[in-house]
Amino acid sequence: MKKIAISLLVTSALASGAVHANVGDYAVVLIHGFQPGQLQSKPDATTVTQDGAAYWQNYWLSQTDARIDWPSHERIADKISTDYLWPKLKELSQNGTCQPGCVLVTHSTGDLVARYLLDNQANWLENAGLQPLNIVATFDFAGAGGGSELGDLAVNIAEGSGTWNSLMKSAIAMWLGETPTKDNTGVLNDLRVANARQLAALPDSRVPRIRFAGDSSDYLGTTSGFLPGNDDGVVASHSSCGASVAGDYSSCSVKVAFNGKLTAQSGGVSQFMPFHYPLLMGSDYSHSSLIQQAHQGQVTTATDSVTMLSGQAIKPETSDEWYWLNGSYYRYVNGSESQSISEIAHSYL
After folding, report:
1. In the chain, which ranges are continuous DSSP H helix?
2. What is the three-class DSSP state of 120?
3. Rounded distance between C-alpha atoms, residue 292 and residue 300, angstroms
4. Which burial class, exposed, middle or buried, applies to 230 when counting CB atoms under 10 A from its CB (0-12, 13-18, 19+)?
5. Any bridge partners for residue 301, and if so which?
6. How far is it, in rounded angstroms, from Cα 65 to Cα 208?
7. Is 240 exposed, middle or buried (0-12, 13-18, 19+ CB in 10 A)?
8. Mind giving me the DSSP string for 53-74?
9. Which region, left, alpha or beta, applies to residue 186 given φ > 0 means left and ψ of -120 to 50 means alpha?
10. How many of the other CB atoms lie within 10 Å of CB of 270?
């Protein structure tokens, strides 16, 4: 194997997540993803906060300045916004948390929640006589902003529309932990592909949405049969990469595969939603492991660099490796042989 190095430059946590990480020059604000158990339990605000802290405890909880917690049994444009987003936005503005610049770190449906936030936060805060948040970028892990076909499937099963075989019900039950009913679909309705792509689809905000995508599954492939193209077990690549349209995609890039192989990707994403930029991909990372500290294999770059709204460029250092067994080159991010994708992303802050 021949290696060619290519340098590209480079508490009360339960109460609010304010553990003051002091990461670089930016404040880090976490927005968690869908929590299936809340569909049935319908937690109160205190439990939502507790669940929000538990969601990030494997790594990011200790790296943050604030969190925005929200309940999965509600809808984004309804109570999630009025009862959870707005109070937190007001608090962040009054505290000046984002004056030096904020980076929103999102996971899964948190990507969609963030898009709605970015489209509205300036108007909401200005109308209240408050300073809008200075958000310089988002780091979106396993982003569900393009929706998930599993959301469509779950809602259809809950509503009893169509004929559903045991394999379909088994896949949804494995993902959710139960078979949904019409009384407990909540944010699953927002996760339906068409609905997700219509929610704040063209926000005025120019904040870069920097993407981190995986291509493995925690469900032994059971759910992947219902997701087009490559997927992380919950969302397909069209969503995690930020593709402009839903489809059957094999990579977030037309030049490199999820496993780092440098070869033309006829099924790679070539057009993206506004200001969506896939940065890192990992073929061994699943939907949940993307935000954990555990190392799950080497990762590659979908693009050479991304610039945040502050003007700071993120340029991962990479190395190209030649494998004589197949005569192919593979590109890997330096350090990814031992660091998790979240640890690498954190280093960019």
Report:
1. 13-16, 37-41, 45-55, 86-95, 110-127, 149-159, 166-176, 188-191, 193-198, 237-240, 341-347
2. helix
3. 18
4. buried
5. 280
6. 20
7. buried
8. HHHTTTTGGGG-SEEE---TTS
9. left
10. 11
- Two tokens, residue 149: 């076909």
**H helix and E strand count, the chain:** 11, 12
pTM for the whole structure: 0.92
Cα 260 to Cα 114: distance, rounded to the nearest angstrom: 29
Tell me the C-alpha distance between 279 and 209, whole Å: 10
Amino acid at the residue 190: D
pLDDT tens profile 217-264: 999 889 999 999 999 999 999 999 999 999 999 999 999 999 999 999
Among 56, 136, 146, 71, smallest CA distance to 104 is for 136
Q: How far apart are the first and last CA of the chain?
A: 33
CA distances from residue 102 to 13, 66, 114, 192, 345 in whole angstroms, order as listed:
18, 10, 13, 29, 15
**Cβ-Cβ contacts under 8 Å for 116 (sequence gap 6 or more):** 76, 77, 81, 85, 199, 200
Indicate the pLDDT class of residue 24, thresholds 50, 70 and 90: low
